[in-house]
Amino acid sequence: MAPIPFSGSPLDRASDRRGDAAWLAAQAVAGLFLPFWQNRPLVSQDRAALLPWREEWRGRTCVFLGLDFIQPLFAVDLAGETEPALGEGAFQDMRASAFVLPARDTAIAGQAKALLDWHKRHGFCPNCGHATDVTDGGYRRLCPACGAEHFPRTDPVVIMLPILGDACLVGRSPRFPALLHSAFAGFIEPGESMEEAVRRELWEEVSLKAGAVSYHASQPWPFPSSLMLGCYAEAQARDFKIDGHEIEAARWLTKDEVRARLANKIEDDMKLPATIAIAHYLIRDWALG
Ligand SMILES: [Zn+2]
User: Total domain count for the chain?
Assistant: First the structure.
C-alpha cells in the first residue's frame, strides 16, 4: 500500500556523517538541490526539480536532505520578494504539489520545507538573543555567544476519530474548505500524554466523553512542523455539543454511509478529507477494516 503522503522518504539521512563538515562539503559538490521560494518547492513536469549548484545561491540557507542511493540531495531557500527565474519548472504551493508529485518527491519536499521553514523562523538564540549558526547540514543551530544548541522542532498533534458501535463522528471547523467534515485535531500540550490530549480535545470541541484511545498511524505534516498522531477514540455516548468556535458542525456517520461516500455514491452538502491528509486514512481504514 502507498505510504501516507509526506511519509515514506527513500533517503538515507546519514545522521552519523552529516556533522562532519569535510564530508558534507564533498557531498555538496556532487549534490543536487531542490530550490524553494516562499515555502514553495520548484516543480517541473510533476516532479520535484533537482538542480546542480549555482554560484548565485552562495549565502542562501542550504540543508542536507540525505542520500538517494549515492546521490546527495540538498534544499536551498531562495528567499526574496520576486520569484527567481531559474529557466525550469515553477514554484508551486506545497499542499497542491502533494497531489501531483510522486510519493517519494512529496516526502522529500515535505522534509525540505519543514527544515527550511524552521531555519527561517529560528535565526536567533531563544536563550540569549544572539544570531545563531547553521551546522550539521541544517539539523542543528549553534549559538556562538552562549553555546546553546537548537534542534529543528517537530510539534505533536493528535488527530482522532471518535467511534461508537457502527458509527464515527466527523466535524467541521470554520477554517475548513467548504463542505469538508473531518476527524478532530489539536496540539498536545506540555505534561500531557497522547491519550490524554485526545480525550481533552474531544471534550473541549464537542463535549464528547471518550474512553479507550488507540494509536493507528502517523504523518509528518510540514505546515509548518507537525507530526500528526492518528488515533481512534471510543466514545462513551452519542451525545455531543459543538463548541461553536473550533467546531461549527458535527455528525455521526455509519460505516455503510462512509463507504458510500468514499466511493462517491453520495452527492450532498458534505465532503470527507482528501487523500493527502491522514484523516482520510483514519476514516477509510475504519470503514473498510
Ligand atoms: Zn545564545
Answer: 2
